[in-house]
Design brief:
By secondary structure, the chain is of the alpha/beta class. It folds into three domains: 2-106, 3-Layer(aba) Sandwich (Udp-n-acetylmuramoylalanyl-d-glutamate--2,6- Diaminopimelate Ligase, Chain: A, domain 1), CATH 3.40.1390.10; 110-330, Mur-like, catalytic domain (UDP-N-acetylmuramoyl-L-alanine:D-glutamate ligase, 3-Layer(aba) Sandwich), CATH 3.40.1190; 340-492, Mur ligase, C-terminal domain (Protein-Tyrosine Phosphatase, Chain A), CATH 3.90.190.20. It has 17 helices and 26 strands. The strands form five sheets. An eleven-stranded mixed sheet has the order 11-10-9-12-8-13-14-15-16-17-18, with helices on both faces. A six-stranded mixed sheet has the order 19-20-24-21-22-23, sandwiched between helices. Helix 5 crosses helix 11 and helix 16 packs parallel to helix 17 (481-489). It is globular, with a radius of gyration of 24 Å. It starts with a strand and ends in an 8-residue tail after the last helix.
C-alpha cells in the first residue's frame, strides 16, 4: 500500500503532472495499480493508456464502476468532477511514463537494490542474459532472470509471456527478487519495452548491445527508429554504469554515442576492449581466445562467441576477476531452443533453434556448414510468423536456399494471417522455389524431414526454439519442436545427447 500524495508527488518530480481534479489534493491509501479496467477495484488506481488496439481512456467509466478511487490519464474525461464524484484525477503528459514512475514508487524502486544488467539487440539477447545470470550465480550472487524463455525471481522459474514484462509486472518481479534475497538480476530489454517506457525507472549497472539486424519493422517502421529505441537504454545509463557494445556491429558506436556511462566494447576487432578470437568451432563446442586467454566452451557457433564475450565483459565491468569469470563461463550450458542439439545413433543431428530473423538464420546455417562432415546434407525447416514484419520473409527464403541442401517451408505462428500469403512472401526471395517442399502442417513437415533425411544428415528446425506452443488463427495449441523431433526421428536409434 502507498499514499496517494506520495504517488502524486512522484509524478510532479518526474515533470509529468499537468493538472488534477476531484479530491486529488487529499490523501488516501492506494493498495493496487492497474492499467486494465477489469483488474481495478476498491482502493485501486487506474492508469489509462493509449494502446495500439485500444484506448484506456474509453474504459475510465468501467474502472469507476469497479470502484477505483483514482485515475491517471492523458486527457481528462469531460465533466470529470461531476460525473465521477469522489474519484481523484491526475492528468499527465505521457501515460506510459507515468505508469513506469507509479509502478516503481508503488513497489519501492526495487531496481535500486539490485545489480542490474540489461541486454538489448536483435539477436543474442536471450543467450547473453542467460550467460550473465549463470556467471552471477556461479560467482556467488543470488540472481534473478527476466527474458524470453523464463523469469526467475527467487523461487521456481516461471515461463515467460514477454521478453520484457509490462511495467507493473516488471517492478513486481524485481520486488519479489529483492524480497527473496536476490542482489542481482540479468534481463533482456526489448525495443518495444524501451519505446513504451517500461524500463524508464530502472537503474542499470551494465547495459549490453548485441547487434542490430532486420526485425520488428512492423512496429518501429524504419531501421533507424528501431535503432533509436535500442539506444534509449544507453542514453539513460548513469555515469557510474558501463555501456558495453559490439564493436563489430555498425550500429554499435551509434547506440552508445550519447551515453554518460563508461563505454567498453567487445568483438573480433583487436581494438575491442574485450577481444575474442575463434580458435575452433565444432558441434562439441567453441574454443576461444577471450580477453587474452584460451578457453573451451560448451556453446557452438561464431555468433555465440559474441554472446560469451558480452557476458565476460559485463562480469569484468562489475569487478569480478577475469580468471574467475572465464572458469565460470566455461561451465555455462547451452540455452534451451538456441542451437539445441539432438543426436541419434545413426549419426543424424537435429538442431532446434529460435532463429526467426535473416541474420539469425544465416548465422545458424553458416555454423552448421562449417561444423558438419562433408558427406552430410543440411536440411532447413522453417517458416515465418504471421501478423509480423513481412519484409524479412524473402531474405529468409533466399538464405535457406543458399545454405541448405534441402529446404522445407512450413507454418510458424501464423496467427491471423493466411499461411499462403506468408509462403508467397518467402517464395519471392528464392530463385528455385519449386525445389523446396511446401508443407502447411509443421508436424507433418518435421515427419517428412525425419523420413527423408539420410543417416548422418543435419536437420535444422528453425523459428520457434523453446516455444511450447503454436499460434494458429486466434488459438494457441501445444507444440514443441524438440518433442516433435524426438517423436519422428526416434526410429534412427536412441537419442545420444
Amino acid at each position: 500500500m502507498i499514499s496517494w500524495i506520495v504517488l502524486r508527488r512522484r509524478l510532479e518530480q518526474a515533470g509529468l503532472l499537468l493538472a488534477t481534479q476531484g479530491p486529488a489534493d487529499t490523501d488516501f491509501v492506494i493498495d493496487h495499480l492497474a492499467n486494465d479496467s477489469r483488474k481495478v477495484g476498491p482502493n485501486g488506481l487506474f492508469i489509462a493508456l493509449r494502446g495500439e488496439r485500444a484506448d484506456g481512456h474509453l474504459f475510465i467509466d468501467k474502472a469507476v464502476q469497479n470502484e477505483t478511487i483514482a485515475v491517471v490519464c492523458e486527457a481528462m474525461p469531460e465533466g470529470a468532477p461531476h460525473r465521477f464524484p469522489g474519484v481523484a484525477f491526475a492528468q499527465v503528459q505521457d501515460g506510459r511514463a507515468a505508469l513506469a514512475e507509479l509502478a516503481a514508487a508503488f513497489y519501492g524502486d526495487p531496481s535500486q537494490a539490485l545489480t542490474l544488467v540489461g541486454v538489448t539487440g536483435t539477436n543474442g539477447k536471450t543467450t547473453t542474459a542467460y550467460l550473465v545470470h549463470h556467471l552471477l550465480t556461479a560467482l556467488g550472487r543470488k540472481a534473478g532472470l527476466i527474458g524470453t524463455i523464463e523469469y526467475y525471481f527467487g523461487g521456481a522459474p516461471v515461463a515467460a509471456t514477454h521478453t520484457t514484462p509490462d511495467t507493473l509486472d516488471l517492478n513486481r518481479m524485481l520486488r519479489q527478487m529483492v524480497d527473496a534475497g536476490c542482489t542481482a538480476c540479468a534481463m533482456e530489454v526489448s525495443s518495444h519495452a524501451l519505446a513504451q517506457e517500461r524500463v524508464r525507472t530502472l537503474r542499470f549497472d551494465v547495459g549490453i548491445f548485441t547487434n542490430l539486424t532486420h526485425d520488428h519493422l512492423d512496429y518501429h517502421g524504419t531501421l533507424e527508429a528501431y535503432r533509436n529505441a535500442k539506444k534509449r537504454l544507453f542514453d539513460g545509463l548513469p555515469s557510474r554504469a558501463t555501456a558495453l557494445y559490439n564493436r563489430d556491429d555498425p550500429a554499435g558506436s551509434q547506440v552508445v554515442a550519447d551515453t554518460g556511462a563508461r563505454v567498453m566494447s567487445y568483438g573480433f576487432s583487436e581494438a575491442a576492449d574485450v577481444p575474442v578470437t575463434v580458435l575452433a568451432d565444432a558441434f562439441a563446442g567453441l574454443r576461444l581466445r577471450l580477453g587474452g586467454r584460451e578457453q573451451a566452451f560448451r556453446l557452438v557457433g561464431r555468433f555465440n562467441a559474441y554472446n560469451l564475450a558480452a557476458a565476460y565483459g559485463a562480469a569484468c565491468a562489475l569487478g569480478y576477476a577475469p580468471d574467475d569469470v572465464l572458469a565460470a563461463l566455461a561451465e555455462a550450458p547451452p540455452v534451451p531452443g538456441r542451437f539445441e542439439q539432438i543426436r541419434f545413433e545413426d549419426g543424424t543431428i537435429v538442431i532446434v533453434d529460435f532463429a526467426h530473423t535473416p541474420d539469425a538464420l544465416e548465422n545458424v546455417l553458416q555454423t552448421i556448414r562449417r561444423a558438419q562432415p562433408d558427406t552430410a546434407s543440411l536440411w532447413c525447416l522453417f517458416g515465418c510468423g504471421g501478423d509480423k514484419d513481412p519484409t524479412k520473409r524473402p531474405f529468409m527464403g533466399a538464405l535457406a536456399e543458399r545454405y541448405a541442401d534441402h529446404v522445407i517451408v512450413t507454418a510458424d505462428n501464423t496467427r491471423t494471417e493466411p499461411l499462403a500469403q506468408i509462403m508467397d512472401d518467402i517464395r519471392a526471395g528464392m530463385e528455385h522455389p519449386e525445389e523446396a517442399q511446401w508443407i502447411d502442417d509443421r508436424r507433418a513437415a518435421i515427419e517428412t524431414a525425419a523420413r527423408q533425411a539420410a543417416p548422418g544428415d543435419v536437420v535444422l528446425i528453425a523459428g520457434k526454439g523453446h516455444e511450447p506452443y503454436q499460434i494458429l488463427g486466434t488459438e494457441t495449441f501445444p507444440f514443441n519442436d524438440r518433442e516433435e523431433a524426438m517423436k519422428y526421428f526416434k526410429f534412427r536409434g536412441t537419442n545420444v545427447v
